[in-house]
């Protein structure tokens, strides 16, 4: 197990850890706190001041005041601040990785290798875009001379889930700040630590007071304010489809644009000509990464009937060797589930799935790791027909549900039989078939011979039950955080001749 760095120790020793409004670190106006637990052993990591609705209103007001000056800051200066923040995150990469491993339970090596560096890249990607991107386009039209201009909204509110707190935060605030908005961030109450640490780095980088505000609050406390306050001009929500519907409804009622990045139930279709070793390793990795608590990961494995037996043998072999260990253990390949509530929810699904006829062919049980009281479970494989709750609903744990298919049409039908539409993958050595199936699977992302493929410039988002937000990580995301303004005047006929 690795030692906490001195900065992590000092950060966690604050009692309570305050939140950030208008450039000042504050305690809850009602002195309330969240206990933040380490899911690897149930120890108390720290107490975080809990923001309430009044605190959230204050954060929105400070963000709105800050916008008056922030909107005059040039794209070049904004880019410089984002680069500076990226450099500071790199300086404190180990602290950020440790906080993520402690708070979420994820493997510290995964946090070092993906969560932190890929998050930092978001800041640099959007900084480079605003250095080079024109926010104004001249238009010479029939009888009209004009310009199409993109301007920041003002205050953008973010509500984030608990599974990738740091990376998702950087995916969101990178483009929003680059576009010239101020932000109010509501992290999930279970995993607020890395977001608060990031807030301190944003201050150190020199973002003016009130540009970045962070309010760890209960969902509904902050949600009601953020979806209705007239000074919040745009809201970005990442989380479950269920809560997303409420947020979308409230924003719709208040005519507020809402980006919704929601849940998923990704499928992986493995054809008979697939490289089965590659598929077994890739799909085992898909359910052990972040302990399967990944919105886009493959949790329905749709396998050609002729290779079912050999695929299942291979994937069981890989999964049985997974080292399940605490997040802070450098050898950990899969940590605990984030909380007792989440663990219970996963086992409820497994039990219901069994009563509906699913066979547990691997795992399905809680496991003891070194006598620790963490929320550990074994990677789990269920097998059965499509008529099963575990095929239909998002479980959000290290669990895959396996069905078989006879032909391509049957596989595509199974993939598209749910309302979710976030990410699927197809595994085959036939490039023409791969492309054809990739286009037939209805989702925001189709991956070939791999699952969970990300790059800046590659839009990542969901459709149908998985979201309507236009996604993240691309040029378009930057424009999602801007409003459109057309400036025009008629051109007199004499001027034309
Ligand atoms: P959740 O929907 O329960 O909570 C998400 C956030 O919403 C939390 O901060 C929570 O406090 C807040 N919230 C809850 N009720 C609210 C309300 N009434 N008003 C305002 N805010 C409210 O989701 P979760 O359990 O934290 O995260 C897991 C879910 O997130 C999964 O469904 C997963 O697929 C999804 N997710 C999606 C993406 C994506 O990019 N599409 C990424 C990560 C996670």
What's the SSE blueprint?
Elements (H helix, E strand, L loop, with lengths): L5 H7 L6 E3 L2 E3 L6 E5 L6 E6 L3 H18 L4 H17 L1 H12 L3 H25 L3 E6 L2 E9 L2 E5 L5 H14 L3 E5 L6 H13 L6 E3 L4 H10 L3 E7 L2 H13 L4 E4 L4 E5 L5 H13 L9 E7 L3 H13 L19 H16 L3 E4 L17 E4 L5 H4 L6 E7 L2 H8 L7 E5 L3 H10 L4 E4 L26 H6 L1 E9 L2 H4 L1
Parallel strand pairs: 7-8, 7-10, 8-9, 10-11, 12-13, 12-17, 13-16, 15-16, 17-18
Antiparallel strand pairs: 1-2, 3-4, 5-6, 6-19, 14-15
Helix pairs in contact: 2-8, 3-5, 3-7, 4-5, 4-7, 5-6, 10-11
The chain binds nicotinamide-adenine-dinucleotide (NAD).
Nicotinamide-adenine-dinucleotide binds next to α8 and α9.
Give a short synopsis of this structure.
It is built from 17 helices and 19 strands. 54% of the residues are buried.
What is the fourth-level CATH superfamily of the largest domain?
A: Aldehyde Dehydrogenase, Chain A, domain 1
Number of domains: 2
Overall pLDDT, averaged?
96
As for the CATH topology of the largest domain, it is Aldehyde Dehydrogenase, Chain A, domain 1
- What's the CATH first level of the largest domain? Alpha Beta
Q: Major sheet: order of its strands?
A: 14-15-16-13-12-17-18
Helix content: 40-55%
Strand pairing plus helix content: what structural class?
Answer: alpha/beta
Strand content: 15-25%
Ends distance: 79 Å
**What are the segments in which pLDDT stays under 50 over at least 5 consecutive residues?**
none
* Number of H- or I-type helical stretches: 17
Give the overall shape, derived from the CA principal axes. globular
Catalogue the ligands: nicotinamide-adenine-dinucleotide
Task: State Rg.
Answer: 24 Å
CATH architecture of the largest domain: 3-Layer(aba) Sandwich
- The tally of strands reads 19
Sheet with most strands: 7 strands, mixed
């Amino acid at each position: 197990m690795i030692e906490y760095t001195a900065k992590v120790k000092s950060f966690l020793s604050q009692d309570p850890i305050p939140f950030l409004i208008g450039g000042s670190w504050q305690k809850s106006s009602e002195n309330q706190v969240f206990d933040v637990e380490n899911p690897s052993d149930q120890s108390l990591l720290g107490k975080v001041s809990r923001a309430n609705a009044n605190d959230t209103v204050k954060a929105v007001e400070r963000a709105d005041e800050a916008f008056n000056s922030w909107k005059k800051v040039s794209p070049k200066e904004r880019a410089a601040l984002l680069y500076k923040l990226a450099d500071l995150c790199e300086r404190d990469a180990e602290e950020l990785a440790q906080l993520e491993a402690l708070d979420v339970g994820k493997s510290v090596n995964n946090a070092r290798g993906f969560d932190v560096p890929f998050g930092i890249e978001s800041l640099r990607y959007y900084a480079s875009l605003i250095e080079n991107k024109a926010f104004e386009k001249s238009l010479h039209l029939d009888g009209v001379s004009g310009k199409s201009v993109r301007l920041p909204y003002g205050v953008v509110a973010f509500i984030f889930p608990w599974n990738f707190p740091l990376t998702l935060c950087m995916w969101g605030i990178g483009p929003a700040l680059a576009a010239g908005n101020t932000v109010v961030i509501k992290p999930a109450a279970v995993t607020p630590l890395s977001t608060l640490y990031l807030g301190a780095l944003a201050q150190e980088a020199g973002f003016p007071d009130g540009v970045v505000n962070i309010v760890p609050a209960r969902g509904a406390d902050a949600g009601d304010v953020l979806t209705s306050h007239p000074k919040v001009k745009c809201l970005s929500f990442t989380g479950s489809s269920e809560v997303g519907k409420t947020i979308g409804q409230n924003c719709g009622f208040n005519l507020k644009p809402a980006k919704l990045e929601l849940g998923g139930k990704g499928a992986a279709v493995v054809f008979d000509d697939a490289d089965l070793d590659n598929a077994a390793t890739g799909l085992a990795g898909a359910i052990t990464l972040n302990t399967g608590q990944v919105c886009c990961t493959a949790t329905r494995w749709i396998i050609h009937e002729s290779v079912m037996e050999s695929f299942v043998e291979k994937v069981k072999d890989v999964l049985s060797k997974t080292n399940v260990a605490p997040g802070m253990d450098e050898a950990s390949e899969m940590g605990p589930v984030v909380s007792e509530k989440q663990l219970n929810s996963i086992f409820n699904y497994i039990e219901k799935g069994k009563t509906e006829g699913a066979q547990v062919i691997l795992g399905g049980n809680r496991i003891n790791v070194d006598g620790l009281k963490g929320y550990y479970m074994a990677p789990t494989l269920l097998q059965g027909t499509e008529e099963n709750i575990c095929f239909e609903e998002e479980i959000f744990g290290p669990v895959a549900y396996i069905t078989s298919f006879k032909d391509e049409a049957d596989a595509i039908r199974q993939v598209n039989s749910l309302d979710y539409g976030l990410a699927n993958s197809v595994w085959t050595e036939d490039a023409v078939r791969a492309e054809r199936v990739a286009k037939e699977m209805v989702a925001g992302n189709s991956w070939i011979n791999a699952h969970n493929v990300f790059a800046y410039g590659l839009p990542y988002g969901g459709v149908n039950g998985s979201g309507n937000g236009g996604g993240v990580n691309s040029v378009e995301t930057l424009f999602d955080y801007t409003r459109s303004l057309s400036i025009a005047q008629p051109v007199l006929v004499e001027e034309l001749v």
